[in-house]
Amino acid sequence: MSFHGIAVVWEQRELMLNGLVTTLLIAAVSAVLAALLGVAIFTMLISRVRGVPQAFSAVIDLMRCLPFMLFCYMIYYALPVFGITIENIAAGVLALTLYNACYIAELLRGAFQALPRENVEAAHAFGFHGWRLVVRIILPPVVLASVPMLGNQVVQIIKDSAFLVIIAVQELTYAANEIQATYYVPFASFVCAVLLYWSLCLVVESGVRAVVRVAELRR
Amino acid sequence: MGVGDLLSLIEGAGVTIAISLLAIAIGTPLGLGLALIRWAGVRGLDPLVAAAVSILRATPSVTLVLLVYYALPTVGWDIPRFGAAVATLSLGSMAYNCEIWRGALLAFPKDQLDAALAFGMSRRLRFSLILLPQIARAALPALVNEMTLLIKVSPAVAVIGVVETTRAAVRIGARTYSPILPFLVALVIYMIVIGGFVMAQRALERRPQVAVYA
User: Fold this and answer.
1) Could you say which of A64, A74, A191 has the minimum Cβ distance to residue B183?
2) In which residue ranges of chain B is pLDDT below 50?
3) Contact flag B186-A70 (C-beta cutoff 8 Å)
């Protein structure tokens, strides 16, 4: 990596930072939406209505065999066939949300199965059911127990967001590739992007550690 | 979508399987090597390995493959597309496998190695007869899981023009203006490949449990 390369990337820092901000926004919005949808799917997975958990399990198993990039292409190219047209960024957020919601639902179920059931049974006895049972009794310990895995999933969302370069979303990897292609400084621009991704992930990891510490204290 | 298209998808599947298997064959032992360096706490190398693994684990494969393919020629190393694809996936696999191997090593009871030492076993024998068989067994489920993740990120190499399953499907869709069928065929291909790994993993998990560190 020459000084020339670093100088060029520094001159183009605005482009790189715009890419970083786009990556951040897309990842943050997708993470929140995926978490909400993931919780909804999780409640379907533990539903006692016959056939419902099986149906959602089948969808999740299918999603777990599907590479994110192929799913992204499906959303972007196949939806217009059905007359639905959406913008690149919206397609990217939609793909990230649907894909990761399935993984989040699955990891919540894993945490739920590992926890003791007594509190749920007690809540039943006290007349809790439906929505209030899920939100007030079932979810809090499940979410607390899965904080580290949820953090991993956020890192996964950040990494998956780089795939959106293929549908021309102008995120961090797109920006690095633009700078690389225009000024021919591949080493400096991509290493810069890698370091930015790394710092994003370190921030998420330290956030997870902080939450876990608070959770331990409050137990 | 004609017979020719189907053949090109199958060819893409062959490329997906080839790059994945090569990356697994390269990344798994390299990951073990890095894990041993960290486990032994080799001075000077240990923090370097830790940093490299942390960076690689945070790097999207798309970004990494672009870096490998475009940056290596600037330092005088012209790497073909296929080589860049295998190198990228191997690096990722190495980083993730390092953590898996390290977990197995940290859980390994040291007194077994002390006993082997007391019997006068050489370092090499201790590794190949005592340590490796047991940590391989403990790490296997996680390693297989990591292999399925590797197959799922393998389409990333399409950005440098390697025609694997996903890119083959996109090409057919772009040419015929009917993307749905090729995408579905690609999905079936991934289900077969990844499903094969998942099934193997489940079969291994269902086997009667043998106490690993007894």
Assistant:
1) A74
2) 211, 214
3) yes
